[in-house]
Design a protein that fits this description.
The complex is a heterotrimer of chains A (470), B (331) and C (293). Chain A is an alpha/beta fold and 470 residues long. Chain A is 32% helix and 25% strand. Chain A folds into two domains: 243 residues, P-loop containing nucleotide triphosphate hydrolases (Rossmann fold); 207 residues, P-loop containing nucleotide triphosphate hydrolases (Rossmann fold), CATH 3.40.50. Chain A is built from 16 helices and 18 strands. In chain A, strands 6-7-8-3-9-10 form a six-stranded mixed beta sheet, with helices on both faces. The radius of gyration of chain A is 25 Å and the shape is globular. Chain B has two domains: 133 residues, no CATH class; 175 residues, MetI-like fold (Orthogonal Bundle). Chain B has twelve helices and no strands. Chain C has 293 residues and is mostly helical. The two termini of chain C are 30 Å apart. The N terminus of chain C is likely disordered. The chains are: A alpha/beta (470), B mainly alpha (331), C mainly alpha (293). Chains in contact: A-B, A-C, B-C. Chains B and C meet through helix 1, helix 6, helix 7, helix 10 and helix 11 of B and helix 5, helix 8 and helix 10 of C.
Chain lengths: 470, 331, 293
């Protein structure tokens, strides 16, 4: 077997002295799926850019790089350009932002040929798209990217990346904009191409299931390379163990037996425009004290409407909604949102966001000093004792922001926390941390209502799960 | 911009086309509403103005010392005793027939006087607009193609300096030191395309500075976007990325800015025409302002508003044609 | 346990933000140039407000059209008035007027726009219809129309420019407030039982004010140009008072003979607009990093 990609002693150095990639060596055999994993800042994307010759004029590349037996270490910009698309394909993270919004999807695929001045027929495009399981290609390829679903558009991007049958395709987080089912479909499509795949991802679950071999990157160094089985059995490096921690099952949990009910919805539905638009089909839901209840549903199933009902921001059109006394005081129900950065006040230091529930109308007035101490305590319990409580949300990572949001939601120990897709913006390590924190909150007696599209996540987390029919 | 044989139109295509028409009509409706609102403001200038309108009109007709009876008669004749909404619709009816009334100073028909001066203004501003669009598109493309190299640095210096000169100051300097200094043309000019060339060039050069900044920023943003990056990984050349990807995407906000700038151009006409002693509408407005000649002020403001609304409407239409996302029904 | 802030008395948000922003502006390369230039012009205007080397308004025909010299560093105009004194005297009118008009439209826009966005309902609808009507005319054209009613004059010009511009700021402030209101952090505060006032003042207002302030600072250069332009046409500052645009109008006929009469006021206008643009652009860069997230 020949190697599709050999990378020896590769380093990438930027003018400021920043060296995101240091002496990385690995090879990818023909037809193999090799995965590079690591946290943010590990150098994954810098490697991808270097392998495409797109590291930018300022960056200095050292080491040997060979693609399909062709030495690219000293290749000119023009040689790189001719190679891209033909010798190496690329699939980007977000399918929508990788398509020109002003042109139809078919055009996006046709560019694979046109960029190299090759003739292209619509049959060829249709063939490429059909091969990736896209139905009704004839009319679909004339539609615009924003009207396509993410999974299908990502498969169209794969069709474009592999149009000129490159021996290797680099896929940089190709599924992070998709939910689990769609992600697997996209990866199956990638594997079905038959060429070598360099998969870059932070999602250990996905990587373990799909890669032949895995390389773990840590601070620009390739610290460990092996097959998924070996890594799982005997991880050598602490970073590997940290990443694998995301796959560990959560500690077992005893669901409370016969909990006192907090909120009860009977046959509740919501309709707009005099019943013409059914926002939420009739649903029964009961959440008791210290319970973790999951609500699963695809987009458009009425998840957010149901949440607004529970939060009291909307009234049901039909059915009955009952709240217990414990939920009546303001602040007895606190939310956690999908967008962690937007859920914190951008111009406030984080401690102020965390301590805000202490300022509620029905809380007794506390001096600033006491509020700050409480905020710091809360930050400590979510494992953020080391960050400056004075930092702004923009200085934190998305995962840290979500933990700050949890600190805020738990600081007054409310009766119920309502979490709307709390993990969909996070990487797998942060998902694990958030999951543990929500479990902790439930142990302390706060009920948690979890809304997600991700069945697997809810199965791990919730005592019971209600599915909203599509 | 299709490829291969045309296919049978699907339902989705037909819906998309319907979306385009619906969107275009809704924009047209908005434009008409805006024009109507503008006409309310324009009309209200007269009742808001100090002094008695009937007396002004009589004076304009040469009745130097009108008696109380004459004034009362004029009030009746001009419909000034009617309720204000009635007055507005009477005025609007006349305007729609192209009648702006009588000039307070010359007693001539305002419409007539406007029509004599309008071509000069349109000529100068139109030519200036063409110059500035052409300059800014060329310069921005050059700057984006040679980002951070000397052509870009040169163009950026020009845009910084140009944007720091108000148009009239730049025009005064250019006129004094270049046109007069090198005797490059008559300053006191007749209204010909030839004569309009130098003033329009000067205005265009100044306006193009800020537009170049805008378009350059848009081009660079588009060239760093996800789709440009992906096109690079398919093997697209930088030239292809600039012209095929960045330009269409960056031109949209640029067009919107031009639509707004048309308003500024019209508003700046009096100043520009004063500097180039150009006998257009702007000069006419200045005369009218010092004489408090309200029918003329009204006519000018309404024409300016209509040109502005038209420009905004055309920009909207262009955006609809360019961007499929705007055609979605209900957005 | 170490704190990076003073536990006893945390600085107020506005204090710490302005400190933050000024520092970041100073670290911004062109922002610093703009700040220095602006400071210089500010000092120049303040001096002109209290003292000038010669009387700026009294003609002195013997020394008419003198080229720059030691006695008259910027020369003299056609009636022998000292150009340095007139530039000094005109500075506070040109710059002060621009700042005054912008502060006024900023405040009016901020209050009306935020109120409309936060209160919503009928109040919002009524306010926005007024804004719509005010926005049907291009700003400068509306200013001409208002001047047509009020007549020329410096105060009238300022009123006209405020009437011409406020609606843009109100519209923008409203959309910013609406955007801020729909943020998750506002919903979280509502559910936590925070009072409406606290939410408006703590969550919504500062962000809207900052972003609107960036827009206003970007408009400062244009406003300086507009005020001198109207004065050039004789619609603003009235003779014998000095203003940079009016200085240009006074001496139009002598530019070929005495180019300093053109260069001095044009130079001051250029430097002020340049300084405003540099600071405005830097502020946009800096504030963009601060708040857009």
């Amino acid at each position: 077997m020949t190697a599709a990609l050999i990378c020896e002693d590769l380093s990438v150095r930027y003018p400021g002295g920043n060296t995101p990639v240091r002496n990385v060596s690995f090879c990818v055999s023909a037809g193999e799926c090799f995965a590079l994993v690591g946290g943010s800042g590990a150098g994954k994307s810098s490697i991808a850019r270097a392998l495409l010759g797109l590291h930018g004029a300022g960056a200095k590349i050292t080491g040997a790089l060979s693609l399909n037996g062709q030495d690219m270490s000293r290749a000119s910009a023009d040689a790189w350009r001719r190679l891209r698309g033909r010798g190496v394909g690329f699939v980007a993270q977000n399918p929508w932002s990788s398509c020109d919004p002003l042109r139809p999807v078919g055009d996006h695929v046709a560019e694979a040929w046109r960029c190299h001045g090759l003739p292209v027929t619509w049959q060829a495009i249709a063939k490429a798209l059909t091969a990736l399981d896209i139905p009704n290609v004839g009319s679909r390829q004339r539609q615009y990217p924003h009207t396509w679903s993410g999974g299908m558009l990502q498969r169209a991007s794969i069709a474009a990346a592999s149009a000129l049958t490159p021996p290797i395709v680099i896929a940089d987080e190709p599924t992070s904009a998709l939910d689990a089912d769609r992600a697997q479909k996209v990866l199956d499509a990638l594997r079905a191409l038959g060429c070598a795949v360099l998969l870059i991802s932070h999602d250990m679950d996905l990587v373990m299931r799909n890669a032949d071999r895995i390389g773990v990157l840590y601070q620009g160094l390739l610290v460990e390379t092996d097959t998924p089985e070996v890594l799982l059995k005997a991880p050598a490096h602490q970073e590997t163990r940290r990443l694998l921690g995301a796959l560990e099952p959560l500690p077992p949990r005893q669901a409370p037996a016969n909990p006192t009910p907090l909120i009860r919805l009977r046959d509740v539905s919501v309709a707009y425009k005099r019943g013409q638009v059914q926002a939420l089909k009739p649903v029964d839901l009961e959440v008791g004290e210290a319970e973790i209840v999951g609500i699963q549903g695809a987009s458009g199933s009425g998840k957010s409407t149901l949440l607004r009902l529970v939060m009291g921001l909307e009234a049901p059109s039909r059915g009955s909604l009952w709240r217990s006394e414990a939920l009546t005081p303001r602040g007895a129900l606190l939310p956690i949102f999908q967008d962690p950065i937007g859920s914190l006040v951008p111009h406030w230091p984080v401690w102020r966001s965390v301590a805000e529930p202490l300022l509620a109308k029905n809380q007794s007035r506390r001096p600033v000093k006491e509020r700050q101490e409480r905020a710091l305590e809360a930050l400590n319990t979510v494992g953020l004792g080391s960050i400056s409580p004075d930092a702004r949300p923009s200085e934190l990572s998305v995962g840290q922001c979500q933990r700050v949001a949890i600190a805020r939601a738990t600081i007054t120990q409310p009766a119920l926390i309502v979490a709307d897709e709390p993990t969909s913006a996070l990487d797998s390590v942060s998902i694990q941390q958030v999951s543990k924190l929500l479990r902790q909150a439930a142990e302390k007696g706060t009920a948690v209502l979890l809304v997600s599209h991700d069945k697997g996540f809810l199965n791990r987390m919730a005592d019971r799960t209600i599915s909203l029919g599509g | 911009m299709g490829y291969g044989p045309q296919q049978v139109r699907s339902r989705a295509d037909i819906r998309a086309r319907g979306g385009l028409l619906t969107a275009a009509f809704s924009r047209l409706f908005q434009a008409v509403l805006t024009a109507l609102a503008a006409s309310v403001i324009v009309w209200s200038l007269l009742p808001l103005a100090p002094g008695d309108v009937a007396t002004r009109v009589l004076l304009a007709r040469g009745v130097n010392d009108p008696t109380a009876a004459e004034i009362a008669a004029a009030h009746d004749a001009l419909g000034l005793n009617n309720p204000l909404p009635v007055q507005f619709f009477q005025w609007l009816g006349h305007v729609l027939q192209g009648d702006f009334g009588q000039s307070f100073t010359s007693q001539a028909s305002v419409t007539q006087e406007i029509l004599e001066r309008l071509p000069a203004t349109l000529m100068l501003l139109g030519l200036a607009l063409v110059f500035s669009v052409v300059f800014s598109v060329i310069l921005a493309l050059l700057a984006a193609a040679y980002q951070d190299r000397w052509p870009d640095q040169l163009i950026r210096a020009y845009t910084q300096i140009g944007a720091a000169f108000p148009t009239f100051v730049f025009a005064l300097l250019a006129l004094t030191f270049v046109v007069v200094g090198f005797q490059m043309g008559q300053v006191l000019s007749d209204v010909t395309w030839r004569a309009a060339l130098i003033p329009a060039f000067i205005i265009g050069l100044d306006r193009a500075a800020s537009w170049t900044q805008l378009l350059r920023a848009g081009l660079l943003q588009a060239m760093n976007s996800g789709y440009a990056e992906v096109a690079r990984t398919r093997g697209a050349s930088e030239r292809r990325i600039l012209l095929r990807y960045a330009l269409p995407n960056a031109i949209l906000p640029f067009l919107t800015a031009i639509g707004v700038s048309v308003g500024a151009l019209i508003g700046g006409a009096p100043l520009i025409e004063a500097i180039f002693t150009w006998p257009g509408l702007g000069a006419y407005l200045l005369e009218a302002l010092s004489a408090r000649n309200y029918p003329v002020i009204q006519a000018y403001v309404l024409i300016a508003a209509l040109s502005y609304v038209t420009a905004a409407f055309l920009v909207d239409l262009a955006a609809l044609l360019l961007d499929p996302r705007l055609r979605e029904v209900g957005k | 346990m170490s704190f990076s802030f003073d536990l006893t008395r945390p600085p107020s948000i506005s204090q710490r933000m302005s400190r933050h922003l000024l520092g970041q502006l100073w670290r911004h390369k062109s922002g610093r140039v703009g700040l220095i230039l602006g400071l210089f012009l500010f000092v120049f205007a303040m001096i002109g407000f209290v003292w000038t080397p010669h009387d700026p308004n009294v003609p002195h025909y013997i020394s008419a059209l003198k080229a720059p010299s030691f006695a008259h560093p910027f020369g003299t105009d056609a009636t022998g008035r000292d150009m340095l004194s007139r530039s000094l005297d005109g500075a506070h009118r040109s710059l002060g007027a621009a700042l005054l008009v912008l502060s006024a439209v900023f405040l009016i826009g901020l209050l009306i726009g935020t109120a409309a966005g936060v209160i919503g309902g009928v109040v919002d609808m009524l306010l926005m219809r007024v804004v719509d009507i005010a926005m049907t005319l291009p700003g400068l054209v509306l200013a001409f129309a208002v001047l047509g009613i009020l007549g020329p004059g410096f105060v009238n010009l300022l009123i006209a420019l405020i009437i011409a511009d406020w609606a843009w700021y109100a519209r923008l402030a409203r959309s910013l407030a609406l955007g801020a209101r729909s943020k998750p952090h506002v919903t979280a505060a509502k559910l936590a039982g925070i009072s409406q006032w606290r939410i408006v003042l703590g969550h919504i207002f500062p962000g809207v004010a900052l972003q609107l302030g960036v827009v206003a600072s970007l408009a400062l250069g244009g406003m300086i140009g507009a005020i001198s332009g109207f004065s050039f046409l004789g619609l603003g500052v009235q003779p014998p008072h000095a203003e940079w645009g009016a200085l240009l109008a006074d001496s139009r006929l002598y530019f070929a003979l005495a180019p300093w009469l053109l260069i001095v006021p044009a130079g001051f206008i250029f430097l002020s607009v340049l300084s405003a643009n540099l600071v405005g652009n830097a502020l946009r860069d800096v504030a963009g990093q601060e708040t857009i997230a």
